[in-house]
Design goal:
Elements: E1 7-11, E2 14-15, H1 19-27, E3 34-41, E4 44-51
Antiparallel strand pairs: 1-2, 1-3, 3-4
Amino acid sequence: MLEGGDIIISADNKQIRQYDELEGIVTAMQPGEEITLEFIRDGQRQQATLTVLPYGQRKPTGHPR
């Protein structure tokens, strides 16, 4: 799961320098497809594989609002 402050550096092994690049990759995908993101959190390089949801839908996080 991504957190606020994470810096995304690649998506499916494609370097991300600006938000528009990530947005273009994700919007070209279909709901249910998976994308692997590499990101920096607290100075550590990490990876997460996420499933694309239909536009506007968010997966519940289990955190109270």
